# Entry
Amino acid sequence: MTPAIDDHLARLGAALKQLAVTSDEAREHAKRGEERELALALARMRDQWQPVRVATRRIGAGGEIPATLDELGALCRAREHATEIGCAIDTIATRRGAGEQTPGMIADALLPPSWDRSRDVFVLGGPTRAALADALVARQQRRIIVVGDGERRADWPEDVLAAEDAAGARGAIDRWAEDPPTNIYAYQCPDGIGAELEYALAAVASGRGTVASFASLWVRQGIANMLSVAHLPTVLDMAPGLFAGRPMIILGAGPSLARNIEQAKALQGRAVIVAVSHALGACQRAGLTPNVSIVVDPEDARYHFDGYPVADLDTLILAATAHPSLYQLPARQILTVAANGQNDRWLYEAAGAETPIVPAGGTVTSLALMLGARWGCDPIVFLGQDLAFADDGHVYAAGTIDDGTHAVPDAGGGFHFAGYSPGFADMPSVAGSPTSRREGRATAPGWGGGTVETSEIFGLYRRWFESAVPTLIGIRVWNCTEGGSHIDGMEHIPLATAIERLAGESPIDCRVAFALPTTGEKRAGIVAATKALRRMAGLAARLAECAGQISRWASAERAISAERAAVIGRYTKLLDAYAARATWVILAAWGDVGANNRDHLDALDDGERDRAALANVEALGRTATELADLIRNHVE
# Structure
């Protein structure tokens, strides 16, 4: 065990013992009904819990979390006492009567000592919500959402927010996406709001994980695609209402697609048919030709198109950060989209174009739904939208390129994927492994009743659809998957019923509707984008030089003098200025720089924190150098 671990362990032991002593006192005050003394003891416990949390993080950062029996006993005693104290508070409240419970008493009962008051979130409803918010603020609770009030009080701290309903509360969670909470507690809120916010928190965590995994690839492929993006039209160039009142069929690649894709041919030419690229093999096998296919994943999806007549597609919609080879496919037209939302803004701004952000839920079918709404399609009909596994564990429909992929459950409540194609195995996230990383298993309500096996991430996608569909006023959304998950807000009907309802639809010439000329303005974009790339290379090189200077001056083997500190300060200001103009460098370095998040930094002393900050600067410098070289090679 290292000296650092020994030191942090000693601090943890001392903090736990102090916490246990205070919990003894709080328990006695609670038993005697001494409300003022109890409130003071609880306040001390909350203050004492922070050193416990920090010491535990520091030990964890060292790779071990040892503890003696005495220390574990102290922790258990504190937790047991917390339970007893909660019961005693309830007893006091009952004795006084529900009408006499003060906001302070409720706050003490709600606010456990182990709660992270700076990050975790209380969501308050009920008639006493404003007074309870004041009581929690007085106890140093930072993040609070008051539900039922359209406007926040001016005297509340900035992280005490007001929301009219669940949608407003979800937006508040998004505000804290850069430093998300670990726990959310809903008190006297409307039914379901707590679950909605837990979903929002899980979605934020999933989004952060996606950025950490793919940000570097987004930037590198975005640079490679910039000249293409500069001259191609975007999804925003298609007129809103383009297909007003005409049906759209969205083909997912779920296992149930094989059940009714043959029937879908009855709608060919009378509806806009959009297929995820994973479903193209099944479409070809069934003799169904989609009008549109979409790729948003940054990994190499070329194998989805193997053997498929891409020239038959009226339009191929590609993420601006999709694999560069996809931009060489011979579709009649390619439209680009900012599939990563604001994270793609740097690319379009450099290319001199409006950023085509379509608010979607991180999947191809969610993007298709929102494009259908933008184009005025009605109804929008889903097939193959299982968001669940087949009874035999398969994930994709028969006839798709990955139809051998299946979920293999484990005894711990999780699963991994196995049986996928060579193309899937070659993707960086799989890296040739015969199985995928472990994921969480879950159940969901079934399309026709009962429950189905699914994954936690599929559950997040389902919840996104359930929140998005009700916002599409005047648009019918039919789930004709005939299998998989039930998705609230959609009408679940067999495809045969949908075909009967659409029997009177007249033909649609999607090829003509989608045709957009490559304008002179778009061609001029290539010239502007080339100049922008050269500027980006120069900016990245200057950022790298500043980072190098900071590293050299800060790493010298001697104490930092006033003169050295002044030099470091000057270069730091320059670095900040360059980084503000080169957000794409920060995004590309996120896997390294973002690792030093608040949880990690809290576990460091001042010297360690300075070294971590220097490591961030050096990582930023390395990334800037790599990108400068990449851009120069690409332009030249």
In short: The radius of gyration is 28 Å. The first helix runs from residue 3 to 32.
